[in-house]
Design a protein that fits this description.
Shape: globular
Oligomer: single chain
Structural class: mainly alpha
Distance between the termini: 66 Å
Radius of gyration: 23 Å
Largest sheet: none
Strand content: under 5%
CATH superfamily of the largest domain: MFS general substrate transporter like domains
Helix content: over 70%
Number of strands: 0
Length: 442
């Protein structure tokens, strides 16, 4: 073979070197990269629909305020109705198959919107039905998703993995709604929902390429669905660490959604912020969430799992205190609420990145689906309750009273992890909680 001389090599033009991704850790884990790609695509699509679906209901169907509230409710209602059942079923099946089927199902169901619009058959009942059916499939998808991650990622990389997955979610939260609103204006709501449907089909493509380690399932004859549902909830209560992080998250969601229920009214009526100002506040939260997802793993390596969880929980509560302070300093209202939104989203993502990784590490493989679903029922189920309480307190007393109650609740949520073994945990456990290993193995 011809070998160029040194002079030839010197005079030859240098080829531009392509940047290469690291070939170690998660970057060398093809299954995780496929899952990350799927999550990034589906999260972007989901954030498009956050704006596109309500705008579609208003612009195309002249939806009433009650119908808009109903549209926002039916999508999360399945978490309360079938969340525990979904967890038990997911532990009986291949997690990859559940995710693949539900991604394809959501994509196909959403295709009904542009088809109905083209046939002039679009109705509010159709949107409500589609939102509910997509919500049901999302319950199963999320339970399987939470159980699949520890099957394809080593335990010592779970925090980093969840940070990267949440980074995609946070980035989508920043850019998705803005692009969604732009697309609705340019190409219409039904066509924007068509793009959302395609993102789920794209996600399914990457999930199909995942090859997790084989799952062992007990014989169906020896299994009892009601008992398995109880086992998932019992696992959250039996483990002191799982119990503390679940209760802390539940309190954050309960108080946080109580707060959010009157937040926009507070910003517009009390702080007299413009629509642009309100948009700036919410956009700053997306930026904070993105930064939180990027720094969660490095902070955990530096300060330890338990210390990071506790510090993030305290930071979430403390940073919220600047919101009611804004009413006392109207000249500084906008920077105060922007700071609160940014800091709270940043700290809650750091908290959740470590919380999810810790839950996955402490849960035996055969309980992953049930524990993930039970956790969702408790934590996500607190959101509509908080919203209802916020509306009641805001109506009976005042918006300011609801804000104060919400801020106090978010601040006190750290006590659940402070007074628990979570504080003393430095490294993520390399084995499941011994008290849970025998649970469900019959």
């Amino acid at each position: 073979m011809f070998e160029p001389s040194p002079s030839d090599r010197t005079s030859a033009p240098r080829r531009a070197r392509r940047p290469r991704l690291p070939k170690s850790g998660l970057w060398a884990n093809l299954d995780f990269l496929h899952l990350w790609s799927a999550e990034t695509i589906s999260q972007f699509g989901a954030q498009l629909s956050v704006v596109a679906l309500p705008l579609l209901a208003v612009a195309e169907l002249d939806a009433t305020p009650f119908q808009m509230g109903l549209l926002g409710t039916v999508g999360t209602l399945p978490y309360l109705l079938i969340g525990l059942l979904a967890g038990a079923w997911v532990d009986r099946m291949s997690k990859r198959t559940v995710m693949l089927v539900t991604d394809l199902g959501r994509g196909i169901v959403l295709l009904a919107i542009p088809i109905a619009a083209a046939l002039d058959q679009l109705s509010m009942w159709l949107l409500l039905t589609i939102a509910f059916v997509v919500g049901v499939q999302s319950v199963f998808f999320n339970a399987a998703y939470g159980a699949l991650v520890p099957r394809i990622v080593p335990r010592d990389q779970l925090t980093d993995a969840n940070g990267k997955l949440l980074a995609s979610s946070s980035a989508s939260q920043v850019i998705g709604p803005a692009i969604g609103g732009t697309l609705v204006a340019l190409i219409s709501g039904p066509l924007t929902m068509l793009i959302n449907a395609v993102t789920f089909l794209g996600s399914a493509h990457f999930i199909r390429r995942i090859t997790p380690r084989p799952e062992m399932h007990a014989s169906g004859a020896t299994r009892n669905l009601r008992r398995e549902i109880r086992e998932g909830m019992h696992a959250l209560v039996a483990s002191p660490v799982l119990r503390s992080i679940t209760l802390s998250t539940m309190m954050n969601n309960l108080a946080g959604y109580l707060f959010i229920a009157v937040y926009v009214l507070y910003m517009t009526d009390d702080l007299h912020l413009s629509d642009r100002g309100v948009g700036l506040v919410f956009a700053s939260g997306g930026v904070g969430a993105l930064i939180g997802s990027l720094v969660a793993a490095p902070l955990t390596r530096r300060f330890g799992q338990g210390n990071t969880i506790v510090a993030a929980s305290i930071g979430f509560g403390v940073s919220g205190l600047t919101v009611p302070m804004a009413i006392l300093a109207p000249d500084h209202a906008l920077p105060l609420v922007v700071f609160a939104e940014f800091a709270q989203w940043m700290t809650v993502v750091i908290f959740n990145t470590n919380r999810i990784a810790l839950r996955q590490a402490l849960t035996p493989d055969h309980l992953q689906g049930r524990v993930a679903a039970s956790s969702q029922v408790i934590t996500v189920g607190a959101q509509p309750i908080g919203s209802f309480l916020g509306g009641v307190i805001g109506s009976v007393w005042s918006v300011q009273a609801a804000l104060i109650v919400g801020v106090i609740g978010m601040f006190l949520a750290f006590l659940f992890v402070w007074f628990s073994p979570t504080r003393s945990m430095h490294d993520i456990p390399q084995e499941p909680d011994p008290s849970l290993v025998a649970l469900g193995e019959r």
